[in-house]
Amino acid sequence: MISLLDGAAERHPRRPALHFYGRTLTYRGLREAVDRFASGLHRLGVQPGDRVALVMPNCPQQVIAFFGVLRRGAIAVPHNPLYTGEELAQQITDCGARVAVVLDLSYAAVRDLPLERIVVASLADYLPWRLRAALRLPVVEAQRRRSGLTAEVPDEPRVVRWDEMRRPPHRHVRQYPLDPSRHLAAISYTGGTEGRPKGVMLTHRNLVANACQQHAWDTRARDGGEVTLGVLPLFHSFGLISCLVAPVMKAGAVVLLPRLDCAQMVRAMRRHRPTIFPGVPTLYDQVLVHPRLRPGDLRRVRVLISGAAGLTERTIELIEAACPGRLIQCYGLTEASPAVTANPIGPRARNLTVGVPLPGTEAVVVDPDEPTRALPPGRPGELVVRGPQVFAGYWNAPLATAEVLSKGWLRTGDIAVMDRDGFLTMLERRKDVVKVSGFSVFPSEVEEVLRRHPAVYDCAVTGEPDERRGERVIGHVVEHPAYPFSADELRRHCERSLAHYKVPAEFRPRQDLPRNLLGKVLRRVLREEGLRPAAHGR
User: Fold this and answer.
1) CB-hemisphere CA count at 13 Å for 258?
2) Do the domain assignments include residue 473?
3) What is the CATH number of the domain that holds 453?
4) Which of 44, 60, 211, 502 lies in disulfide reach of 498, CB 3.0 to 4.6 Å?
């Protein structure tokens, strides 16, 4: 992995590597910062194979710490900085990290954990001097404190300030010798949409292979000539590959944005003219209708890489109107580093599907109850995949690993159907399929019908236990503000397009739907809410 950074720094030492609110770090500067950080880890006693927790949003320190950990031969464990202390405690305890690198804003969430050292940074460390000075103005500082944007970090023996990690190394920092196929680069915790998150072990080979696969797909990418809009979080596998590893492989510049702010995104696009825009459907929905966005802001974008959630026809139409022929919908999962399939770039894309397998990737649709039996085109079943990007297993969870990994084949847990041309359409998570009187009901099919009704702004379908039929279908509906909600009308609408057992037995109006950071609907949360005794008056 670290050889990607070294190669980029050798080929293009003066090319921008990171843009952050007007501050630019070149590849030469980034490599130097990484070497200094790796030397600092050595001084802290971090040994090859140790796990180092990274609790930061997208910022230069996140990138420097990630590559610095790898330079030392240790394992990076990125965490969501919005997690509570309890959530971080579960993951940091599970991976056994003794050192954490955090922003001052996250210090309070980790201060009570049994960490030997806590490296504390601030977003201001890499801001231009004018912005740093503005942040220190009394009025601005008072506003930041009221909004929770600052945090007091006490001086205690285990706290190490970021500046201490920037000291020049006493000697040249050499890369610890690694076996790319065996040594881990990162442990990425799953989002936990179906329960407690598990640590996904990703080797150096996994991450490099997936970056290679993405560049083999995008043959027009120019070495040293691409600019990636890095708004997807780097602590998520999608953001890690598409907004960091793949750009560094091609010595591209990354525009780092620490949070989703459409106004900031528009300003960043206008200033840096990104050529690659990885995102998720909800992100595109927001930024493409922002009043400050002008058509020229997207002129340089060559490709929009959409993943993490399925695209709707409405979102596809919105993107195609702004960037015709440049959208590709992809599919992946953390256990595959994450990319598995992608649509062709250009007019051959079928973006209601997730495309075809990436180079070097095998994908087969099998009978979920008999996974050794492949199903023919047109038959829905569980998707299993094999390739160099498939993970090494779950950290400290051999039984869970054995359930999904066998002879290199990964059971994704996703229900899909493949057409005769090899294009895959994702239907659901296997656990989301509702069984009504022995019949399988795919929530996405019901949701597609529901969305055709003008009263439905958004929706999700789940199943709930039913004594007579095993399960019953529940429709959770966010109603359109200009159209009154009527359960009877929605039922009649569904009956015109769906078999009777697929029609929701109940429609529940909601203000919004629970989603994770990347916009996926958390059906587990909806199911749990429905099972509460007081839910909906039952």
Assistant:
1) 19
2) yes
3) 3.30.300.30
4) 502
Which residues neighbour 258 within 8 Å (Cβ) at sequence distance 6 or greater? 57, 58, 59, 123
Inside any domain, residue 253: no
Q: Could you tell me the residue range of the domain that residue 466 belongs to?
A: 433-537
**HSE on the CB side for 272, CA within 13 Å?**
31
CB 227 within 8 A of CB 252: yes
Query: What is the spatial distance between Cα 41 and Cα 35, in angstroms, rounded to a whole number?
Result: 10
**Residue 478: Cβ within 10 Å count:** 17
The reported pTM is 0.83
466 in a structural domain: yes
From 321, 319, 374, 314, select the one nearest 343 (Cα to Cα): 319
Identity at 150, one-letter amino acid code: T
Partners of 471 in beta bridges: 465
∠ CA 180-181-183, rounded to 5°? 65
Identify the bridge partners of residue 406 per DSSP, sorted by sequence position: 409
Q: Give 535's DSSP letter.
A: G
Separation of alpha carbons 456 and 423, rounded Å: 29
Q: What pLDDT digit, counting tens, does each position of 391-442 carry?
A: 999 999 999 999 999 999 999 989 999 999 999 999 877 778 888 876 778 8
Instruction: Note whether residue 65 is domain-resident.
Output: no
Residue of 315, 310, 302 whose CA lies nearest to 217: 302
Contacts for 274 with CB less than 8 Å, ≥ 6 apart: 227, 228, 229, 255, 268, 300, 301
Q: Which tens digit of pLDDT belongs to each residue from 85-144?
A: 888 998 999 999 999 999 998 999 999 999 999 999 998 888 877 766 655 544 434 444
Instruction: Name the domain count of the chain.
Output: 1
Q: How far is CA 40 from the centre of its chain?
A: 29
